[in-house]
Design a protein that fits this description.
The protein is mainly beta. It is 10% helix and 37% strand. The chain contains 2 helices and 10 strands; from the N terminus they run ββαββββββαββ. The chain has a 5-stranded antiparallel beta sheet, with helices on both faces. Strands 6, 7, 8, 9 and 10 form a 5-stranded mixed beta sheet that branches. The longest helix is centred in the C-terminal third of the chain and has 8 residues. It is globular and about 45 Å long.
Length: 149
Amino acid sequence: MFSKFDPDNDISNFPLQQYKGRIEINKALEVGNCRVHYSPDYAFETPVEVLNRVKDNTLLWIDNQNSLLGFSDQKKTLLVPLNKINGIEIQNMLKGRGPAESCLWIYLYEKSFVTLSISPEIYYFDQYADDIHKTTGFTVTFSPEFYNA
C-alpha cells in the first residue's frame, strides 16, 4: 500500500502484449492526463482504434461487443474483461512520511485488484467518481483515507 510508484519506470522491464481483436468504444470518459499503471496480466500496447480517441488525455472506456473495460494513454492500455470486475475504488493517502497520492483501482471477483492509475495529486480521482459510475455501470467506492507513514 505504501506506494513508491515510479511512472517513468513501471514498464521498462516488461514487454507489452498486442491485443489481437478489434476494439469498439461504446462509452468513454477522459480522466485528465494521468499515467496508466502496469499490470502483467492486463497491459497491452494501445490499440489503433483507441489511439485515435486518446490524444493527450487518459481514457476510461467500455467495449460492449468484446466485454472489456479499457484504461488507455498513448503508450499502454489496461484491458480487463467486464465479467471479472466486482467494482471500482478510489483511495486517497494523505502525506505522512511518504508522499500523498490518489489511487484508482478495479476490484476483481477473484479477491484481487488491478491498479489503473496512481496520481501524486491527492483527491485527483474524486472528481471523476460519478462519471466513472455513469460510464462503466460499476459502483465506485471510496476507501478510508490514511496517512502514508
